[in-house]
Amino acid sequence: MLRGRPCECTTASDPTRARCACSWAPYTERNPGGQLPALELDDGRIIAETVAIFEYLEEKHPRPALIGSTAEERPETRMWQRRVELKITEHLYNGFRFAEGLELFKPRMRVMPEAAEGLKATVRDNLAWLDRLLAEKSFIVGDRFTVADIILYCAVDFGGTVGQPLDPQLANVGAWHARVAARPSASASLHPQSAAVGMRG
Ligand SMILES: N[C@@H](CCC(=O)N[C@@H](CS)C(=O)NCC(=O)O)C(=O)O
Q1: How many A from CA of 159 to the centre of ligand 1?
Q2: N or C: which end of the chain has fewer CB atoms below 10 A?
Q3: Going from the N-terminus, what domains does the chain have, and what CATH number goes with each?
Q4: pLDDT digits 0-9 by tens, 91-150
Q5: What's the gap in Å between 36 CA and the centre of ligand 1?
């Protein structure tokens, strides 16, 4: 992560009142996107954006492959990653930012509280779409566990703690969520303060 540029969120009993140092200088001098995560390479270069970071990590450590091992597997994963982000996770996060997270986010971005319910409904619609597709497969791409699963799992898991619980009627998504949650990496990757602030992630 970014050396010498602390980017810690202060915690409060009410997590919506936390403030994140990553939204302002000096952090933004290195990562103008002002978000986590950001990776500082040994040569001082900064790589932010989750997708760019995991592309880099997989190039450095190709096994086990979370994007893919072949010219066919990689675009298949990227296609699903894109669908998951554009149809589900971006709406879920903005649904939080514009509602439960409004006080936290309004000092640092344009917030649209009027959009929150529509965004959350879009998430539900697209999880129902995914539920039908997951009837035929164990993971989002098929039988391979990939970054598409990781991205969706993190969002859905987080959503469950901020007012966007999974619809229990979505049995295939529920079974997929349990399958991913059972992997040791799922609990190992939780932020150490996750339980204290009552938010998974
Ligand atoms: N597009 C970014 C989104 C990252 C993101 O949403 N990070 C959150 C993690 S809590 C964040 O930094 N939020 C604080 C903010 O947006 O100011 C990525 O994929 O890395």
Answers
A1: 15
A2: N
A3: 15-48 (no CATH), 73-190 (1.20.1050.10)
A4: 999 999 999 999 999 988 999 999 999 999 999 999 999 999 999 999 999 999 999 999
A5: 5
